Amino acid sequence: MSAEINLTCFYILAILFVCGLIAARISKEKGYSFLVGFALGMTFGFVGLIIATILPENAKRQEE
User: Which of the listed residues 5, 13, 15, 36 has the most CB atoms within 10 Å of its CB?
Assistant: First the structure.
């Protein structure tokens, strides 16, 4: 039973890590920090991906 719990935790962390990487890439393309997007994805999972997707372009990036 303990091995099942450990494997489940590993799968959850792996999914959150992938969500973090995808959200980081999306936010980086929009002019935000990679770490901000990664934190969104790791913390909120699929909801973090949605948040990163609907973020507006960064105002500093639009000026360039």
Answer: 36
Amino acid at 5: I
Query: How far, in Å, CA of 1 to CA of 39, rounded?
Result: 31
Each of the 64 residues of the chain gets a pLDDT tens digit; together they read 787 888 999 999 999 999 999 999 999 999 999 999 999 999 999 999 999 999 999 877 655 5
Q: Which residue bears the tokens 């990163």? A: 52
